[in-house]
Write a structure and sequence with these properties.
The complex is a heterodimer of chains A (377) and B (346). Chain A is of the alpha+beta class and 377 residues long. In chain A, 47% of the residues lie in helices and 13% in strands. Chain A is built from 15 helices and 8 strands. In chain A, helix 4 packs antiparallel against helix 5, helix 4 runs antiparallel to helix 11 and helix 5 runs antiparallel to helix 6. Chain B is mainly α and 346 residues long. Chain B has 2 domains: 74 residues, no CATH class; 265 residues, no CATH class. Chain B is built from 13 helices and no strands. In chain B, helix 7 runs parallel beside helix 13, helix 9 runs antiparallel to helix 13 and helix 11 packs across helix 12. The radius of gyration of chain B is 21 Å and the shape is globular. Chain B starts with a helix and ends with a helix. The chains are: A alpha+beta (377), B mainly alpha (346). At the A-B interface, helix 4, helix 5, helix 7 and helix 14 of A face helix 10 and helix 13 of B.
């Protein structure tokens, strides 16, 4: 990854990170700048590498679930879901209805929480402090719901292979309805404060345009791909779990303000997605079966047959995450490989940020919404 | 004894002691203001953001800034080994000097002005330009690339915004036909139709002065490097801009200078557009003049804080566009319009 840069007398090599306020963790960017203009960007990774995949080879299948929490720690429920669905497909487990619904409710709530962080920190990258505090206020309500369900606020270990760690507590459904009622009004507040702000629009529109073909060539997924105007959402196009039972739209970037695929579109897609997620949660709560043992289908021992392998992909807040698991007949996987959405999305950064200013680089990086825990694994 | 203490303040009798005393008192006033303003800023920010802000030290955290100041004073004084020591050490004082010297010409009330200069407004504009070399020295002397970026941005920004500031204040000077700050306030005693009080204040005197008022507020906010124009210290881009390498007391001086500059800008608005020490109704009031002046200035300070916690930050080129392509043509029209107004309407 690290290459020597040719030194030119009128350019400056600048190290952005790993300790920098707006690299969203410990990402390091090597920049070649000419004044404020960024001529070359080179992401340098690995500061948060924790050998997740090697760890998994030495852990039994259920023990891996808490490790998946720590991948994309802002959307731990969605990681849990991706992993347990992969193992369940391997073992061919039939799940109780109630488990399916609770899983959808939890992952969509986590998607809202994750997008709230994305929105807030994007505002912070542009110098607006207050939206972050507002979005964290609503995220707090979601975290309270999670805490009441599983005791944890960040790393949940809630979804187990074949079931859940706990059933929903008394009053969870009512409290979630209450949250959704409050949340619908709050989205308007974010739009008033940030999305329609003149300075915000000036800073994001037409900045870092990601064309359709480039997005596909780099295998971008999630809001980054949809921001470029491509309607691709695994929940809709390749429904897993019970997503085919809900009605929701897949928002894509449009050219109403600026070109398709700019930072503004990627941001707006997240705002719209939160509204769609809220719709899904509402439908799931309406249809939620009243009774059912959430741990009924948990297998006594988990030993997939020798040579069994599976690749399963799900739509996490940052895009498509996939787990490839190969079994050697023991209780531990022979190999586990994870496809990280943020890692793939980050790879497009050098392409779309060259020629922009340092301030725009921060905007583009913020609009890609990376989480280093998932990139370095 | 008391008379002797008052005598100490008379330059005629004690030329050196009186001047030192004035300097110390001004410094103490700035220090006191900054301590209150920092606390206020944190409280304003907190309540705008649905939180409480500092609550532990003293009543509603009012002593928090004092605790922070003590912490800054007793911190280790770090000078990076690669820094240019002379520039690095001088820069914070030079930056503070720009704001500090401006207080000399501020007319506090009808009776008292520290120094009643004939070209008072000109003096304030000139002295506040000392800040620019100070910032460039800080950025260059730190020997840090982020600091250098911050210094270059601030130099470009302040030089650009100096022009709309000067031209918008020129409109005031034309209306008052004086550069003396006391006379500018005096010209606001009686307004159109012989009404006194708020009707006399320049910012509602005529449309040109009203626009000049807002141009000055925008350009003044940019001159002070406050959000949405806080590019020199944009923490999400440049870490901390020109003061990245500073810590302890030297950093505190930059902080002090920022808030002092904010107060100077607010005082200039209060004097030039909002009638200085004049009360809101009539010309006489039981409340002393300096309370009126400070009250008006604080409202402008609060406005700046409101800006800061609402807006995102502009980009460098957009910042320059606003100065050169928007504010500058507007101020040209204002100067022309005010000239016509002065001749035909009065």
């Amino acid at each position: 990854m690290i290459q020597e840069m040719t030194y030119k007398p009128d350019s400056m090599i600048l190290n952005m990170g790993p300790q920098h306020p707006s690299t969203h963790g410990v990402l390091r960017l090597r920049l070649e700048t000419d004044g404020e203009i960024v001529n070359k960007v080179e992401p340098v990774l690995g500061y948060l590498h924790r050998t997740f995949e090697k760890h998994c080879e030495n852990l039994e299948y259920p023990q891996i679930v808490p490790y998946t929490d720590r991948l994309d720690y802002i959307a731990a429920m969605n990681n849990n879901l991706g992993y347990v669905l992969a193992v369940e497909k391997m073992l061919d487990i039939e799940l109780p209805e109630r488990v399916e619904y609770i899983r959808v409710i939890m992952s969509e709530l986590n998607r809202i929480a994750s997008h709230l962080i994305a929105l807030g920190t994007f505002g912070l990258d542009l110098g607006a402090w207050t939206p972050l505090l507002y979005t964290l206020r609503e995220r707090e309500m979601i975290l309270d719901l999670f805490e009441s369900a599983c005791g944890a606020r960040l790393l949940y270990n809630y979804m187990w292979i074949g079931g859940l760690s706990h059933d929903l507590p008394v009053g969870f459904v009512e409290k979630t309805y209450e949250f959704l009622d409050i949340f619908d009004a709050k989205v308007k507040e974010y739009n008033d404060l940030l999305s329609t702000n003149k300075i915000f629009v000036e800073r994001t529109v037409d900045v870092g345009i990601l064309p359709k073909d480039l997005a596909i060539n780099y295998a971008c997924t999630g809001p980054v791909l949809r921001g470029s105007g491509i309607k691709w959402d695994l929940r809709k196009d390749e429904p897993y779990s019970i997503y085919d039972r809900f009605e929701f739209d897949v928002p894509i970037g449009n050219d109403e303000i600026g070109s398709v695929g700019d930072s503004f579109d990627r941001y707006m897609v997240r705002v719209w997605e939160m509204e769609e997620s809220a719709k899904i949660v509402r439908q799931a709560l309406d249809q939620l079966p009243k009774n059912g043992d959430v741990q009924a289908a948990i297998p006594r021992k988990i030993k997939p047959p020798k040579g069994a392998e599976v690749y399963f992909r799900t739509e996490a807040p940052r895009g498509e995450i996939g787990f490839y698991i190969k079994s050697d007949g023991t209780a531990k996987p022979y190999r586990l490989k994870m496809r990280s959405s943020a890692f793939v999305n980050l790879s497009v950064l050098p392409e779309i940020s060259e020629g922009w200013m340092i301030a725009d680089l921060v905007t583009i990086l913020g609009s890609l919404d990376i989480v280093l825990g998932e990139i370095d694994r | 004894m008391i008379e002797f203490i008052f005598d100490l303040f008379k330059p005629a009798e004690f030329p050196i002691i009186s001047r030192i005393l004035f300097a110390v008192l001004t410094f103490a006033f700035i220090g006191g203001f900054v301590i209150v303003a920092v606390w206020l800023e944190r409280k304003v920010a907190a309540h705008m953001q649905d939180r409480l802000g500092p609550m532990r030290v003293g009543f509603h955290g009012i002593l928090q800034t004092i605790a922070d100041t003590v912490k800054l004073i007793i911190k280790e004084d770090i000078i990076p080994s690669a820094a240019d020591k002379v520039l690095f050490i001088t820069a914070p004082f030079l930056v503070f000097m720009g704001a500090f010297l401006s207080f000399l010409a501020i007319p506090v009330s009808e009776e008292f002005t520290p120094s009643d200069l004939n070209g008072g407004l000109f003096y304030i504009l000139a002295v506040s330009s000392i800040v620019i070399p100070g910032l460039v020295m800080a950025g260059w002397g730190s020997n840090n690339k982020w600091s250098l970026f911050g210094a270059m941005r601030s130099a470009a920004q302040m030089v650009s915004y100096e022009i709309p500031i000067v031209l918008s204040l020129l409109v005031v000077v034309m209306a008052a036909s004086s550069l003396n700050l006391s006379e500018i306030v005096g010209a606001q005693k009686v307004g159109l139709g012989g009404f006194s009080g708020i009707a006399g204040w320049f910012f509602i005197r005529n449309p040109f002065l009203f626009v000049a008022f807002w141009v000055y507020i925008i350009a003044g906010t940019a001159e002070n490097n406050r959000t949405p124009f806080d590019l020199p210290e944009a923490e999400s881009e440049l870490v901390a801009g020109f003061h990245t390498e500073y810590s302890g007391m030297r950093f505190a001086f930059f902080f002090l200078a920022e808030y002092a500059a904010m107060l100077v800008m607010a005082l200039v608005v209060a004097i030039c557009f909002m009638g200085g020490w004049l009360p809101i109704i009539g010309t006489e009031s039981a409340i002393p003049g300096f309370v009126w002046l400070l009250g008006k200035a604080m409202s402008i300070v609060l406005l700046q804080m409101w800006f800061r916690w609402t807006f995102p930050r502009l980009r460098v080129d957009q910042l320059m566009t606003i100065s050169w392509k928007v504010l500058l043509p507007i101020t040209f029209v204002l100067v022309l319009g005010q000239g016509v107004w002065s001749i035909w309407i009065g």
